[in-house]
C-alpha cells in the first residue's frame, strides 16, 4: 500500500492548512504568556519607555513584548523543528500580529499628520520670537568680574584637578567626573557644575552605600574649581545603577511622561538637584517637541516634585532653576521658525527670508538667568550673520537682534590669527556689549586646553577691530583703543577688576606688590599641575604660583629679581596672582600685539 501523504504546508490549493495542536497546548500558551510578561518587565526596567502614544519607544516596547510571545510559543510547541506545528503557532499569533499592525498604522498616520510637509506653519509657531529689539539698549554692558572666561572643554580640564581634594577624604581613585558641565548662575556668578561617577562597576559596588561624596563647581569667571563635600552624599545620579538611577526614579514615578535628558543643578544654598524637563509632542504624534513642566529630583533623597511651565515663570522660589530648555531643543525650534515662516516649499525652492542658526552656541548671564546665545544666518549665507539669538533657558523668552557681521567661526579664526605663532585655539565666542558694540569675547587655549590669552573681535568690523591680551584688563584696554581709533565713543562704565577678585566687594583682600631677589625656589606637582614656591631674600614666607598661571616661573633661578603680586595674608605660604621677572630680557616684556606685528614683518 502506498503511504498516505499529508500536506502540512498549507499550499495545497484552496484547502485550509491542517492545524495540529502540540501536546499540552493550553499549558504552553499560558507559559508563553507568562514568559512574554517577564520579558515585558525586564524590557521596561532597562528600556524605560514612556507609556505614551507620542513616544516612539512605546511602540518598540510593545513590539518586543508581542514578538516575544510568538517566539516563546514557537519554541515551546517545537514549531521551529517540526513544521507540522507552524499552522498552530500562526493561528494563535493572529491577535499579537493584528495589535502590532494597528500600532504601526497609528504611528504611521500620526507621523504623516505631524510631518513638516503638511504642518509647516505649526512648526514655525512652536517658538515665539521678538524681533523689535535693540542690542545696545537691551543688553547691559558686562560686569567683567562675572564674565565666563572659558568654555566647557577648559572647565573639564580645570575640574579634573579638583579631584585631588578627594584624596584627603580617603577616596583615592574611587571616582571620576561625569562628562557633563552645564553652565548655571550660582549666587549671581556664572559657574559650571559637574557630578562625580564611580570609576568602575567594582568601585560602584564598594561605594554604593555611601554614595557620591559631593560635586565639583567651576567658577567660569575667576577660573577656579572646587570640590564641594556634602554632609549627606548624593545617592541618586546618572552614574548610579538600578533603583537609584535618576531616569529610573522619574520613570517609575511618572510612567506616562516623556522626558529630556536630566541635568544637574544646585540651588543658592548649594543643595543638589536633578532637573528633568517634561516634553510634549504638540504636532501630530511625534512632531513639535516642547517643554510643559519639570520634575525636580532631590539628588540626596530621590524625592520628586512636579512643576508646570507657569510655575517656573511665576514662582519666585524657583528662580534659581536655570536650565529647563536645552540648547539643542531651542535651536531645533528656531530653525523650524526660520525655515517655515513662509511655507514648506519656500524652504526648498525660493528660500525667501529663510534663516538658520550657526554651527554652535554659548551662554551669557542676564538678569540672573542663563541665556543661550547663537548666531543667525541666511540659509544661503557664507561667513556672515544677519543677527543673533538670545533665549532664556528657564522661560524660553526669545529675542532676535538684527546685526550684520562675522560668524562665530570667522571670529575664532581671526582671533587665532592674532597669535598664530603659538597655535592657540579660540573658544566659541561669548557675545558682549562693549560701548554699545556687539563684541565677540574668546579665550585662547594651548594644546592642554589651558587659557593663555584673551581676544575680542568686533562683530561688525571684524577685519579692523580685533585684539588680544595677556589679561582681561589688557585685552579690554586694547579693544577700547581700537574702538576709539575707528571713531566709536567709549563711555566710562567699563571697569575690569583684578584677575580672580572683586576689589569693590566688602572685605575683599587687597593686593600687595613685592619686589626682591629669589633666595630659594622649589616645585611640586599638585593635582596634575606644577606649582612653584618662591622665597625672597630677607623673608621667611614662601609665595606659590601654578605654572599654568605664569610661564615665567618655569625659567626662574636663585638670584633673579622678580615682582610679585599677592593678596594680603598671614599664612606661611602666600598665593600669588601675578609674577614678573624684573631682569628679564627686553623682548619678554613687550605686548603680545607688538610681537605679532614683528613676526609678521
Structural overview:
Helix content is 27%, strand content 29%. It is an alpha+beta fold and 601 residues long. Strands 1, 2, 3, 4 and 5 form a 5-stranded antiparallel beta sheet that branches. Strands 6, 7, 8, 9 and 10 form a 5-stranded antiparallel beta sheet that branches. Strands 11, 12, 13, 15 and 16 form a 5-stranded antiparallel beta sheet that branches. Helix 1 packs antiparallel against helix 2. The longest helix is centred in the N-terminal third of the chain and has 23 residues. The N terminus and C terminus are likely disordered.
Short description:
The chain has 601 residues and is an alpha+beta fold. 27% of the residues lie in helices and 29% in strands.
Secondary structure layout:
Blueprint: H1 25-47, H2 56-76, H3 86-92, H4 94-113, H5 120-124, H6 135-138, H7 152-162, E1 175-177, E2 182-186, E3 189-198, H8 201-207, E4 212-219, E5 224-234, H9 246-253, E6 258-259, E7 263-266, E8 272-283, E9 287-298, E10 304-308, H10 309-314, H11 327-340, H12 344-348, E11 355-357, E12 362-366, E13 369-378, E14 384-385, E15 387-392, E16 398-401, E17 405-406, H13 408-418, E18 425-426, E19 430-434, E20 437-445, E21 451-458, E22 466-469, H14 472-485, E23 511-526, E24 529-536, E25 542-546, E26 561-567, E27 573-581, H15 592-600
